[in-house]
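This section describes the prediction task in plain terms. A model, or a person checking by hand, is given the sequence of a single protein chain and must write out its three-dimensional structure as a string of tokens. No templates, partner chains or ligands are provided. The sample shown here is typical of the held-out split.
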Amino acid sequence: MPVKDLETQDMLLNMGPQHPSTHGVLRLMVRTDGELVSEATPVIGYLHRCAEKIGESLRYEQYIPYTDRMDYLSGMSDNLAFALAVEKLLKPEIPERAKHIRVIMAELNRIASHLLAFGTYGLDVGAFTPFLYAFREREMILNMFEYASGARLTYNYVRVGGVWKDIDKKFAEMVYNFLNIFDERLKDYNELLTYNQIFITRTKGIGVIPADLGIAWGVSGPNLRASGVDWDVRKAEPYSGYDKFQFDVAVGKEGIGVVGDCWNRYWVRIEEMVQSCRIIRQALDGLPPGKFSADVKRGFKVPKGEAYTAIENPRGELGFYIISEGADTPVRVKIRAPSFCTLSVLPEMARGVLIADLVAILGSIDIVLGEIDR
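The expected answer:
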């Protein structure tokens, strides 16, 4: 039979929801023509836990542990985002020491999250060694968190008014020890992966998000900055005293990669770890004496009103919107989840790529399904 008489049709494949490269319980309905992806549709909801509705039925201080379990790789930041929203209405006098401790914890958590992104991205594209290196350093940060909060994943450490417990000399020594060795470890990461020619070939020019497309879909954080957009909530709308610290915003660039591609999204996270170390050292060197929390009583009532606050968590702009009627529980809780917005643009990025490229694209956006499904 002549080849021209053969009839072909697209194949519809399910990638996930149980699949290592989906980084959680995500299902992708992938339409392919051979190895070429013509359409990829995310299907979410496998991890739905009604986090926002739960927030409307618990006292403010009772809800903080639930924020840990949304972005379970960034519990400190999620605690902070909710606490800031409540404090916007409650208006307690937050001690300067508490602000510094919050910044230290948030930036350590950013490094820990980016280390996981770095290590698992190596696995996605076929490199196993970076994963082992990343977890070696991440373990040091988790040891610090365990010392300060008693937990290694879900912390319930940042509270309304400040933090749960003060940090001491031993904690500071652990942080300084980490900072002193991390610069050298970053050089290892760059030799292993960043400037590895195979890795560059797998990521350069793949999954490009143009700046205007990213803005239109609500993409934020490293994924938007990799597209050349200089927007960081810590700089644009400073909170918790970030305006007192010197650091640079990592933005995607032409060169090894193409602005907005997988390589730049990876590189921005590597550079952000460098800047986080700068912030942590400044915050620790200038840690003021005094109280670590305001005097906020258990079962406090929040004045009537509504508030929205946003922070720069490792995945982008995380926001909490609450409405209070003057009781000890909010009547409305709404969360702006950066991973949800980022995942929304995936169908635009996936058209016309190879199946192997789809894996590289999905790993590069660093999503957490607990935050998407909530």
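For orientation: The chain has one domain: 8-373.
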